[in-house]
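QA checklist item 7 of 12: single-chain prediction sanity check.
[x] sequence parsed
[x] length recorded as 185
[x] structure emitted
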Amino acid sequence: MKYILTAAILGMAVPASAATILYDFDTNSPSNIFGGSYVTSGSIPGVQAATPNGKYLNTIGTGGFYFDTPIFAKKIQFNLGSPDNYNSFKLLGANDTVLYSRQIFGNGNPSVFRTVSVNTKDLDAIYGMLFESGKPAMEVDNIRAEGVVSAIVPEPEMWAMLVAGFGLVGFSMRRNEPKIKTAYN
């Protein structure tokens, strides 16, 4: 029994390594898209979509989106169509603080798309993504996260307050225990 319990606890501690698709823009898109970003399908002359078929996020100038809920993940990935030197993206934290910024390098070949991957395990919660394109457009699709943390683990201070609270409740319950007096006649 002791070994089964240990195995179960260790099994819970191992994170899932498969990437979770957050937005594929065909079946699900972020609800808060802003700036020069919009969801489209088909091709734009001289531009390669981030995926050959289906819908994708297109940005002209500066634009992006906010995640429906903040993301805690080990890695963020997305497909980028016709990568150009004038394309860049940023991962946004609370109050639009920039957590990560990266310029995309490429020659703008309209027949190419690449997967961009960012190690985010040391970043705070990611609230959104900002895309910038100095020329025609930046095409993004299949935004996915690997190692998504679904529940936030309490900080040590929170555990200390929790234990102290339970201790105080226990102490007050024990202190107010009714005394039973028995009388014999």
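[x] summary fact logged: The mean pLDDT is 77.
[ ] second reviewer sign-off
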